[in-house]
Amino acid sequence: MLDEVRHMVFRVKAVFSEALNSSSWLTSTFRTRFKNTLDGIKVLIGSPGDRIKPEFVERFYEPLHDVPVDRLFPSWIQGRRLNTHYQWKEQKSWLYNEQSARAFFTGSTVVIPTGHVHQPIFYEYGPPALNYAGIGMTLGHEFMHAFDVGHLRKDFWESKEVKNEYTKRALCLRRSHRSVASLALYDTSRVLDKLLLSLSA
Q1: Homologous superfamily of 2-147 in CATH?
Q2: What is the pLDDT of residues 106-133, one digit of tens each?
Q3: Is residue 105 a contact partner of residue 44, using CB atoms and an 8 Å limit?
């Protein structure tokens, strides 16, 4: 199942790359920079490290004895101690809540926890169209954070022409979004519009 999601990551990245290649307003310098940004996005899917592998789980819990029914609290403390020790020792794998149903983007990494890969967002052996509408949309949304206003403001914009084109297109998209967004999102929309306008200043 997670291998299918990994393949979808590859396809969604390829579509983003094609869109950058066919862009009429990006200069070659910025096209290369944006493609490098896209290529640099790391995607973590499922459980961090080896925690999903049965042999790892057996090895991990081997030091623990069977839990006596009448003494749950001491066993719980021992389990917490074991987990804390693992977190201190494991410095190479990302540690995140795999049960979370929320995907997120941080720095240049997209995290899709195991808890996010379920119906109706993803159907194992389901039609590709349905899965791309669910998890594919999530991937596209998270990838876009690498190119949104907050992230790109950190980047150096030496071309005023590219900056103005980006701002013009982003504001057009914002107006389109605002025309269908609920009034509850109005304040958020105003903040985003101010960010975009400050970018072109």
Answers
A1: Collagenase (Catalytic Domain) (3.40.390.10)
A2: 888 999 988 888 888 899 888 999 999 9
A3: no
